[in-house]
Amino acid sequence: MSAAVVTVGEMTLRGIVRRRLSLVLLLALPLAFYLARHSQPWQAVRFLGIGLAWATSTVALFAAIAARSAEPRLRVGGWSWRDLVAGRVGALLALGIVLAAPYFVLIAVDRPVGRIAATGLMLLVTAVTGVAVGSALGAFVARELEGALLLFIVAGMQFVADPPTLLAHLLPFWSTRELATYAIEGAAAGSLGDAFAHAAATVLICTLATVTLSARRLRLRR
User: Fold this and answer.
1) Transmembrane segments in this chain: where (predicted)?
2) 144-32-166 Cα angle (round to 5)
3) 61, 48, 72: which is closest to 120 by C-alpha?
């Protein structure tokens, strides 16, 4: 890992930490969803997973849009666009994993499910896919409002879409619901293989979109 990647990662995290109230609200989002369905453990875990996906993707979206003003100047200064993207996304992945950890402890203590390891996998996969989706949206739109509305539509549709339907499979956070189903109900109801394949496809598509759009934008502004 180059020094430039580390430096960009530190800059990204400092920018996020400065927005304290927004960060606190996003951290509380999965907890709010969890508590809303606390009386129904199988629903509480699923809602927490989608809440985590929403939170991590929102942080990634805002970080990507905030970086639009600084990255062209850094490019003029000789920084590689690859280092800029890798540093930002790497920092967001680390933050997403840190965010997921206390929720894993919460579920293990408050609502232990039959397969607690699968719950940990769900939270980890959710953090990664959330960062990938948010980064791709941030590369696609230039303003926070448009990005937040797009993310709201995607997450809202994931909430209401029936998991077995084609629509649910086409949405980026289907793997979260499938992993939650596996953790709670077992292999007869949920498939680890399908969930991982869906998550891998989501991350790959979003990564390609982020890299392509970021490279184009930064190369045009040399």
Assistant:
1) 21-38, 44-68, 89-109, 121-142, 149-175, 195-215
2) 70
3) 48
List C-alpha distances in Å: 128 to 112, 143, 153, 155, 216.
23, 23, 20, 15, 24
Name the pTM for this structure. 0.90
DSSP for 118-168 reads HHHHHHHHHHHHHHHHHHHHHHH-SSHHHHHHHHHHHHHHHHHS-TTSHHH
- The answer to whether the CB of 130 falls within 8 A of the CB of 103 is no
HSE on the CB side for 149, CA within 13 Å? 5
pLDDT of 77 over the 50 cut: yes
Q: Assign 3-state DSSP to the chain and report helix, strand, coil percentages, each to 5.
A: 80, 0, 20
Exposed/middle/buried for 9, CB within 10 Å: 0-12, 13-18, 19+?
A: buried
